[in-house]
Amino acid sequence: MRTLAMLATLMLLAIPAHAYDITDLERDMRAQIEKMMKEVGDVTLAQEATFEGGASGMSGMKATTYVKGERWRSDAVMSGSKQSANIEVTTLYDGTDMWSVMMGMKQKLPTGAVGQGGPTSLWNEFPDDAKVLGEESVGGRAAWKVQYDAPKGSPRGQGATTTWVDKTTFMPIQIETKASGKPVRMVMSDFRKVKGYDVAHLTEMFTGGDKTMTMKIVKLETNKGIPDDLFDPAKLAGGEGMDMNAMMKKAMEMQKQMEKGKGNE
To answer: What are phi and psi of 91, to 5 degrees?
Structure first.
């Protein structure tokens, strides 16, 4: 009997333990984010960003983002250098579709746009080829290391991409990918408690080794009574459809203003 018991124990030890895979990670991400959204409630946050290098012609951004359940909205103002014109951009997810208003024109964005599924599915679904490679520490925080091949145009990168998912928050804390053939790294840090949850208040982007963006949360409030009208696309200002001629004209005017601003430096 003793021999049989020992054999049974050895057989159990020989059976490989279930490895934590991408299915487990996506399940836990959704559960954690849904729990956080429910307990934290409505969120209003103000962000400020600076862009370095000048490739886009924009030097900074100020944005206010509102989150209420599955719905969210971001009102941003992109600023140029000196005399160049500012660009106002509103992005809205109404729980079903995503909308954008830029240069006075409103359009419904195609399926798969950034955040198309709302806050609770912004990071809980990876491409089919995603794999959990194991655990790794980033900035002193334990994380799951996930690797996948992001399709062209994906908001999560282009081509081979690695994302580190924080084991506590189940949100990304580092992403490495490529854009226009250059390596890009995005790092989230400066974690602060919001109703008991860690929230990254600083996001930095590095392109080819140089810092190209710094974005900070400068103010975060919860349960401020966000009105439902704020998420109604019918109430967004701007003409329906994308008038390419008007956009080109507006872009040319902005380009002239930026060149004028550079000439006065």
So the answer is: -120, 135
Q: Which fold has domain 19-257?
A: outer membrane lipoprotein receptor (LolB), chain A (2.50.20)
Two tokens, residue 173: 């804390």
**DSSP code per residue over 120-180:** GGSSS---TT-EEEEEEEETTEEEEEEEEEEPTT-TT-EEEEEEEEETTT-SEEEEEEEET
User: Do residues 81 and 258 lie in contact, with contact meaning Cβ atoms separated by under 8 Å?
Assistant: yes
- The b-or-e profile of 119-138 (16+ CB within 10 A means b, else e) is bbbbbbebeeebebeeeeeb
Q: Could you say which residues of the chain have pLDDT below 70?
A: 1-18, 53-58, 81-84, 111-125, 150-158, 238-265
State the pLDDT at residue 144.
96
Q: Where are the domains of the chain?
A: 19-257
The reply to whether the predicted model has a pTM over 0.90 is no
pLDDT in tens, 2-42: 555 554 454 444 444 568 899 999 999 989 988 988 899 99
Contact 25, 132 (CB under 8 A): yes
Residue with tokens 């399926």: 111
SS3 101: strand
Element containing residue 35 per DSSP (H, E): helix 22-40
Q: Which residues pair with 145 in a beta bridge?
A: 134, 164
